[in-house]
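Appendix B. Worked example

We walk through a single record from start to finish. Start with the input: the chain for Actin-related protein 9, Lupinus luteus, length 594.
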Amino acid sequence: MLQDYLKTALPSQIMSERGSNLVVINPGSANIRIGLASQDTPYNIPHCIARYTKQVPKRNVQDQMLNSQVTTAQHMEREKAYDVVASLLKIPFLDEEVPTNSFPRKMGRVDGHNPHTIRKDLPFTWTNVYEEAITSSSSAVESSSKDVKIESLDPKEGTDSKESDVSKQKFRELICGEEALRIPPSEPYCLCRPIRRGHLNISQHYSMQQVLEDLRAIWDWILIEKLHIPRNERNMYSAILVMPESFDNREIKEMLSLVLQELCFGSAVVHQEGLAAIFGNGLSTACVVNIGAQVTSMICIEDGGTLPSTSKTLPFGGEDIARCLLWTQRHHQTWPQIRTDILTKPIDLLMLNQLKETYCEIKEGEVDAVAVVHSYEDKVPVGTHKTRLTALNVPPMGLFYPTLFVPDVYPPPPRTWFHDYEDILEDTWNIDFSRRSDMSDTFYPNFNGGLPMWENYPVFSSKPKKEEKVGLAEAITNCILSTGRIDIQRKLFCSIQLIGGVALTSGLVPAVEERVLHAIPPNEAIDTVEVLQSRTNPTFVPWKGGAILGVLDLGRDAWITREDWIHNGLHIGSNRKYKDSYYIQAQAMCYMNS
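Next comes the structure step. The output line below is what the pipeline stores for this chain.
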């Protein structure tokens, strides 16, 4: 009966009927994409939280100690990379004086219109940090949510605290999402980002317990305010966690515990982001390249099965392009004389990301545009500065020449925190577990960072991959060539899938095709590279794929219930492995291609 129903029902009908109680969660370093599987698109919410503090914080952003000082060596490498990029783009070198009219000028429109980007230029308002005293009996999430109606810069969604009677107001205990980024610097709040560079943001400044509590608070706020799912009804809902490849086993387990124990979902399943992405675009074989805000990850998929040894992670993304944009403009003295600090003023990073999305593109020749830049200073009106931005095609080229990006420097969490040999995303029937205990004290003894989820297997190299200085083209080439088979290599080089917000950058697709083709060694019998066009917004492809996987998972063999997780957890030797399906079923392919 069920199979007959799936054969006759329309895909939209199946998603609507079977996805109404499935919550798809795709967490990222900068944003979280979350929504019901029956929705066309998810909510895309900044993954941050600001908490009220009675003590005056040393800084409004509590984060791992990020490096804001560029060393001499880094500065020289960055300038060298700029000149290499300038030569390729046929624009003047970094310190070259440009004679008038010596180069063709490609000017953007005065209103900053970009045909590839829809931008909202709305008046800015600071977040109202007060709430009415009558809401004090409510929970922190419920009380704060009565004023939270944003995730955009719509001025109608904020109010001026001066208009209310101060005697009837008190500070909101916590503020989540984009509103947290728009809190005035003088207010007694501390901003936290529980995920950074593809890992839980654990350090001596940010404990594991606080990271997990902040995640719980953010997700709980979204479930109540955006999805309208109260806590006492969540046992009737199931959660689909679409996890990036950068997360480690221990981190994924903590996420599962968060969803099943703290948020009280009835059941949950974990799917790998790369695998979910091919479902989201109706593919079966592809090299999935996810260029996110802070991390770029890639993995090869063959006939619906992941190839774990091909997984690679690069520590840069869209936010690095925004930082490079600021550096480029300051060097060319096109940036207004204002205090722009993306480390201590989150609203500045928000502005730079908008400028990047609107104006940055990859094309030859000089790319300039007249843009409006804002200055956000406390207790003064927002400043507006019209300026001519230049070299707008240089920052996105940092994806191929990452020395343009000066990396964040922050202390990693203790290595023992990530020490976990049970992989919940992989079938372990062919792994000899007896070998693991012998390696427990010697596995990666000197590695300071977290391991990608596949690299803790003894069948793979015992040394972590270090590709921090590898550009995007080289990483994609190495990822595909590591499959070791010419037939699948040819297929994958013609099936590259770009996802993530940066994939929307104009000119990126031909740049990837050209540079990947040049990065292939001449002894390889491969002469064609193609990036497949995404069927939907590349930012939401993994989320959409997770929704499809959840709806089509009829047997739910990989799902785990709340009771089972609380009482049994996950242990070696269990017959149930909470993993991705390696093979796409015929029904799934029929649905995806219909």
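Two observations about the output. Residues 100-120, 134-164, 421-468, 571-594 have pLDDT under 50 and may be disordered. The longest strand covers residues 305-314.
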